[in-house]
Design goal:
The protein is mostly helical. The protein has nine helices and no strands. Helix 2 packs antiparallel against helix 3 (36-58), helix 3 runs parallel beside helix 5 and helix 3 (36-58) packs parallel to helix 8. The protein is globular, with a radius of gyration of 16 Å. Mean pLDDT is 84; it is low at 1-8.
């Protein structure tokens, strides 16, 4: 079995977004097969990865996942700071927190759909069937995939 480290598989924001798209695709497969708890987790993970790609761009850091510092020891601290799963904090690091507030206040549909994902965190992988709604998960995935949905919004802003 081939094992790819973060360094080899995600070397730039584009590749991180590709991985985010794969996780969203996997979430949809799980959802369509009645595994909505796993689908919810992977959908949220696609948001996390998209935000990390945006952080790379915002901070002009080509790779948040590289282990070598190449003469830039401050990158180790940055990587440690963003090696988190808290979406609110990642929105802040990405420079999008204020823009997100403005978007939500001016677009009720966006705000309502965004409200479905605020409960996501890395512990969602431990969710039981009563914790996650299939309907909510379907709405989340549709929101993330939409041309004017959250992932597109993150990428475009």
């Amino acid at each position: 079995m081939l094992v790819i480290s973060h360094d080899e598989s995600m070397t730039n924001p584009f590749e991180i977004r590709i991985l985010a798209a794969k996780r969203l695709e996997e979430a949809e497969i799980l959802l369509n097969n009645g595994k909505f708890e796993g689908a919810f987790y992977l959908a949220g993970y696609s948001i996390e990865l998209t935000l990390k790609a945006k952080i790379c761009e915002h901070l002009d850091v080509p790779n948040l996942f590289a282990s070598s510092e190449q003469g830039k020891p401050f990158l180790a601290n940055l990587r440690k700071a963003v090696k988190i799963h808290n979406l609110e904090t990642l929105f802040t690091f990405s420079g999008l927190a204020n823009k997100l507030d403005i978007k939500k206040s001016g677009d009720q549909d966006f705000s309502k759909l965004f409200g479905l994902i605020v409960c996501w965190n890395e512990d969602a992988r431990y969710s039981t069937p009563t914790d996650i709604s299939e309907i909510s998960t379907r709405k989340i995935i549709e929101f993330l995939k939409a041309k004017n949905g959250l992932l597109a919004w993150i990428t475009q802003n």
